[in-house]
Amino acid sequence: MTQVEPSSRRSRRSDADARYGEQSRGNDQARSGRSGGAGYGGGYDNRAGNRAPREPWDSPDSRGERPPSRSESRSESRAGGPSPRRSQPAPEPFPDDEDGRRGSHATTYGQGFSWVVAWTIIGALIPGLGLIAAGWRRLGAAVLGVLGVIAAAIAVWALSGNIMKKGVSFAVDPQKLLMLAVAAVLIGVLWALVILLTNSQLRRYATLDTGQKAFSWVVVAALVIGVGVPTYTVGDYALVQRDLVKSLFNSDSDSDANDAKPNAEAADPWAGTKRINVLLIGSDAGATREGIRPDTMIVASIQPSTGNTVLFSIPRSLQRVPFKSGTPGEEAWPQGYYCPEAGVGNECLINAIWRWAEGDGAQYYPKTKFKNPGLRATEDAITGATGLEIDTYAMLNLEGFADFIDAIGGLTLNVSERLPIGGNSKNPVAKAWIEVGQNQKMDGYHSLWYARSRWSTDDYDRMRRQRCVIAAVTDQADPVTIAKSWTKIAKALKNNMATGIQQSQLQAYVELATRVQGGKVTSLSFTNAAVGGTTVNPDFDLMHSKVQKAIKKSENAGKKKSTATSTATPSAGASTGTDKGTGSGSGTTKDDTDKTTKAEDPDNAQDVTEVC
C-alpha cells in the first residue's frame, strides 16, 4: 500500500493552512451532527457551548497532517496511489530573518522605490509619519506627540499676548537668545536623525537597484541639508544678536536724574513720558585721528505717544556755547565755551568740547566720576545751547557708515546740488562727482559722501543732507532686507556704534523706533539766520524759543508718514554756499537759474520732504 505523503511536504495554496482548520471543523461538525458526536469527534459541544478537544492532527505537533478522507481512499484504491491536489508553492521566508519571520516593527505594505522616497519626504516634512509607515509605530507616535506639544506651546505663546512685543523681548534677552541657539542646533540634529532612521527602516525590506539606492541617498542628503540650513541660520542669528546686545547695549554713559527713562515692565513703557531727546552723533574717529571729534550733532526730539519727531541740527562751528546749569562745564566756562586767544583753527567750537573734557578739562570731568567725560561734557553743552535735556545718545563712526548702508540695501536720495567725492577745502580737487538727480539709489560709499561732502558747499547744506540721510534710513529701512542681512548689519553696528541705551530698556526703545517710523518727521537747522546772524556770537535765547516753537508745532501735527525721497518739484532758493567744482559735466552753481537746492526756513521746522 502506498504511503500518504505528509501535507507539510506537499505543495498547496498559500491560504490552505488558514482555511484548512475551518473547513475540517465544518465537515466534522456536519458529521458529528449526523452521527450524534461520532466519527472523528471534532466540532463543538452544543450543550456546553464550548469547543471540543481537537484531534491529534489539529494539534501544533501534528505538523498539519490529517488522515485521508473517504473519497481520497477510494481514489487511492482505484488508482493505486494518492490523488494529487491543486496547489502553488508556499512563500519563501525573508532572507534576512533567520527564523523566516519579519521583525516586529516591520510592515508588509509598500516595499517599492516610490513608496520609500515618498514616505521619506513625508517623514521629513512631518517627523514621525515616516517612522509609522516603516513599522516603528511607537517611536513615530512619540515623535508626533512631541511635535504636537511644541506646536501647541508655540501657538499658546503667540496667541496669549502681543506677538511682536514678545518677539522683541526674546530678541533683546541674551539668556533667551542663547537658549534659542542651543535649541535650534538640538532640533536640527534630532530632525536629521529622524530622517536618516526613517529612510533606513523604509529601505529595510525594499529591493532597490543601484540607481534607486543612489537617488534615495540624494533625497536624504537634500532633506538633511534642507533641515540643517535653516536651523543653523536660526542658531547663528541668535548668537550674533546675543553678541550685539551684550557688547553694544552695555552703556558707558552717565545716568542723570533728569533723564527720561521708560518703564520696561509697563504695557506702554512710555506712558507718562512727554518727550525723549536722543543725541545723534556722527564721529570722525579713525586710525589716523586722535580721540573723538563729533562731525555731526543732531538732537532727535521725539513725542512717544505719536512718534512725531523734530530733528535739530547743531552746527559744529557753534561758539560761546553755555553749559547746562550746575554742571562742571559751567564751572569751567561760566561765560560759555569761548577762547578767541587760541587763534584761527583752534577756536573753542562746540565739536571740540569732547576732546577738551578728556584733556585739559579732565579736572572738571574726571574719569573717577564720569564713565565717558567727553560725552557727558558734550551733552551738557547741547542742553545749554538748545534747552533740551539729553536723555540718551547714539554715536556712529562714519568710517563704518558705508558698511551699515550697504547692509540695509542702500538708500534712495535726492541730489539737488552737484557734490564732490574726495578733496577738502585746502585741496579742492574731486576724485569723482555725485551728479544732480531725483530718487538716486546709492550704496554705502556714495551715501557717505552725500552726507560728508562739504568743500563745494557750506556747513549748513551739509547739515541738511545729513538730516536727509537720517530721514531716509528711518523711512526706507525694509524689515525683510534687515532680517536677511542682519549678520552684516550687526557686525557694522557692533564695530562702529555706541549708545547709552541699556539692555533692560532696549525693548522699549525698539517700540519707540516703530512709532517714529509711523510718525511725522520735521527738521530745523541752526544756520546763521536761525541763531541770530552768526555762529561766532549766537543768540541762545532765540535758539531756545525756536526749539520750543518747533516742538509745539510737531505735537499739534497729526500722524503722517514722511519720506526723504519726494519727487515733488524742488522749491527755488538761494544757496548758502558756492559750487567750487571744476569737474566736467553739467554741474550746478550758485547763480544757476534752474538751481534745485531747496530753501530752508530759518524760523520754522519743516517736513523733511520740503528740504530733501
Automatic annotation (TrEMBL):
UniProtKB keywords: Membrane, Transmembrane, Transmembrane helix
Positions of region (Disordered): 1-105, 551-612
Biased composition (Gly residues): 34-44
Stretches assigned to the Cell envelope-related transcriptional attenuator domain: 293-477
Biased composition (Basic and acidic residues): 13-22, 52-77, 589-601
Signal peptide interval: none
Keyword Nucleotide-binding appears in the UniProt entry: no
Pfam families listed in its UniProt record: LytR_cpsA_psr
InterPro entries, A to Z: LytR/CpsA/Psr_CW_biosynth, LytR_CpsA_psr
Ranges that cross the membrane: 112-133, 139-157, 177-197, 217-240
Membrane is among the record's keywords: yes
Bias kind Low complexity: ranges: 78-87, 563-579
Entries under PANTHER family matching the protein: POLYISOPRENYL-TEICHOIC ACID--PEPTIDOGLYCAN TEICHOIC ACID TRANSFERASE TAGU
Similarity comment text for this entry: Belongs to the LytR/CpsA/Psr (LCP) family.
Protein name in UniProt: Cell envelope-related transcriptional attenuator domain-containing protein
Species in which this protein is naturally found: Kineosporia mesophila
